[in-house]
Structures are given as C-alpha cells and as structure tokens.
Amino acid sequence: MLDGIRLSKDQLAIVALGITAEGFKIVLDFELGSSESAEVSKDLMRRLTKRGFDCDRRLLATLDGSDALRSAVKEFFPDSVIQRCLVHKERNIRSKLSKKHWGELARLFKRLREVQGKAAAEEVVEELEQFLEGKNAESLKSLREAGEDLIALQSLNVPNTLHRNLLSTNAIENSFRNTRNKLGRVTRFRAETDQATRWLAFALTEVEKGFRRISGYADLPKLVEALKKN
User: Which of 156, 167, 184, 209 is least surrounded by Cβ atoms within 10 Å, i.e. has the fewest?
Assistant: First the structure.
C-alpha cells in the first residue's frame, strides 16, 4: 500500500506499507516531498528496489487513486495488479451526489466489498452504473474512471475474507492516525534539516510495534497462488 501523510503545509511523506504472505504488516520506507508528485513517488519506488524489494510473483498494490502513485508502481512493477481503494472511490462519488442518494450508494458499495469473484463484482458495478445514470454525470464518470482497478482483487477470484484489508487503504491510514499521535503537536519541520525524516522514522517505528496480522490472513496463500506469474 502507498499513501501520503501531510506533515506540515509544505511537507508531505509518501509511505509504503507492505503485507507479507503470512499477513504481517511492515513499514517499508517513505519519501519526503511537497506533494504526491510523480518524481517523489518514483524516488520512493527506486529506493525500495535498490534496497532489494522484489517479488517472485505479481505485486498487488492498493492505492487511493493517485495517478502519480499508480504510474510509479507500474514503472517498476509493470505486471502489478492495482486495486483502487473502494473507500476513497465511494467518498469521491458521494461528494458529487445529492444526500438523498447516499444511502443507496452506501448499500451498493457494501455489496461490492462483500461479493466474491469477478462475475459477482461485475454485476454490482453494473448496478452502480445504472443507479448513477441520470443522477449526476460527474459521479458516473468517477465510477468509470477507476476501470478494472475497481474490482482487481475480486478478479483474482480469491476468498472475500481478504476484502476487509485489501480493498481499501484503511490499514495504512490507521497507521497514519497513530503516527500523528506519536508526532504530537509537531506541525512545523525545518525543511533545511532532516528533522521531518527523523521524527517520521521514529513515529512509524513506534507505530509498527503495535501492528497485528490482517484479518483473513489464513487465506493469503490463495492470493499468493493467484498472483503467480504466468
């Protein structure tokens, strides 16, 4: 998982969180910048690969929809499977809809998170399109923009016990909430020093100590099998 955490008005860090085949979460690395730019994202991926991060199978990456992050992952892992965070996507679509439609939208996205397999997921996406047609052109455009990334995990036909942690970036965002607590009231970092790097490294290391295995980890071998390169 890749996502950005805002440290101050002028500094943001892109953090890479890994999940092992046994279900353990690991903070892999981070890169500082002013935004989730393509160059900052690629610098992070470049350093990860130089440090030996590799996969003997296709990589599954769950992203929030950032084009810069997706581009960086695809450049270094061309055959990777990209899953769009369904929480971010639902939130984006909801922001364009009238409140009277929020309940039905939530119901359909709940179904999308629960159904197992590609065929079932495609049916729910079709229902979502039918629901949004005629209500708001921008919301429909937002749904279609995600393309196959919206149901990438279901397309691997793995057990839906893995959906809770892999269909969204909640795992890394929860880490960010705890990271902010560790940083306390520090909201200004001197850009000419390595202050932000040292503080963030400390906070992430402390947060990592409280990591637990993801739910459904017993079914991860089936995901590993599905991600094997042809």
Answer: 209
